[in-house]
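Suppose you are handed only these lines of text.
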Amino acid sequence: MLMGRNPDTATTTHPALVYAVSKLASQAGGKVVIGDSPGGPYTRAMLERGYRLCGFTDAAKSCGATLNIDTTAKIISFPQGNICKAFNLITPWHETDCYISLCKCKTHAMTGFTGAVKNNFGLIPGLEKPGFHMRYPDVEEFSTMLVDLCRCASPDFTIMDAVVGMEGDGPSGGSPRQIGLTIASDNPFALDAIAVKAIGFTSDEAWTLKKSLEMGACPAETQTVGDDVIFPVVENFKRAKSHDVTPTRGLPGFIRKPIDRIAQPHPVVMQDKCVGCGECAMSCPAKTIKIIDGKANIDRTKCIRCFCCQEMCRPKAIKIKTLRLFSL
Ligand code: SF4
Ligand code: SF4
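From them, the structure of the protein bound to iron/sulfur cluster can be written out as follows.
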């Protein structure tokens, strides 16, 4: 539940999947609690709004599940983390004895792809998320942290809604695209490997998969059982604009980072679409967005290109701009 939004936009996991899984878990004797921490303030009011807009309130009502409204969190130590040794995770995760993660198959402006691994970022309380972007501003470090987080959160089972995914400028500014798959695994890293293959991306285009392979979290070989699938399942799945241009991909970090600072895509506010709500400014880890005369303004010199602003902008008023030289 990235944000409260109509499920038809393919921004969030479809409530039909939430309902079906909750019902089955309930029938198996479980006491089901549906929870998440979307972007923005982690408050009861924001949670209830998000659940309602995403269709989770109705889904929970229909199957007798409870919606989490506890907004506390606790720190769990993870000494084996590669880059991050502790995480502050929302309370329902600490209290459950079976954690089922329901994710969506989407492109992502920063990490290229978001699915099973990145879904666990929803366990971090809302406004603590930008802090991770400041601690790990480079996509490689940020993705390593996400792999650590997924290993720490260790979902018992993950199910991906790839019936209709999001292509283009995901995770919120893209367009719905029919894929027609539901993918499930007890290994979230392997699940992402299959999903990435299904949409015709390479592992280099999905940073969390690339890092999980390098770190040995994802098996080098994955296979599917169930329906026969011919890969890729969809052709020409649109990449996020930020990933159309990757002149430095594959270069070592010490060469790539300084070039990226100048050449890589950056967010631009379309003033005619901006409604001045300030959600981008609230989510900007670098605090480089100001609302002036009812419109958002970005000071690009401090921008770390995490694209949280674009992610949180409901009217899709933030586009990703690329230097002309690198878009040829
Ligand atoms: S750019 Fe988007 S999120 Fe930011 S103030 Fe404008 S409408 Fe709101
Ligand atoms: S302006 Fe946008 S992309 Fe830049 S640091 Fe802030 S949230 Fe991230």
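What can we learn from it? The chain has two domains: 7-214, 245-327. The mean pLDDT is 93.
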